[in-house]
Amino acid sequence: MSVAREVNRAQQMREKARHLTEAAERTSDPEQRRRLQEKARKLQEQSERQDGMPV
């Protein structure tokens, strides 16, 4: 996969994580909030790992 695709994919994951975090802030259900926050955290970590991958 090209470097540009890797960078784009990492950016997309960070954007998705941001949307999930925003959705978690809007929900009143504590369990749903926890699930959304956990998904956002995992995506953010995955994007950080992808950014650090050797080329």
Backbone shape: elongated
Structural class: mainly alpha
Largest sheet: none
Number of strands: 0
Radius of gyration: 13 Å
Q: Helix segment count? A: 2
Following the backbone from N to C, one meets helices and strands in this order, namely: HH
Cα distance spanning the termini? 9 Å
Strand content: under 5%
Poorly predicted tracts of residues: none
Mean pLDDT: 90
Q: What portion of residues is helical? A: over 70%
Descriptive overview:
This protein is mostly helical. The protein has helices at residues 3-26, 30-51. The protein has 2 helices and no strands. α1 packs antiparallel against α2 (30-51).
Give a short synopsis of this structure.
The protein has 55 residues and is an all-alpha fold. The protein is built from two helices and no strands.
Give the topology.
Layout: H1 3-26, H2 30-51
Features:
55 residues, elongated, mainly alpha, 2 helices
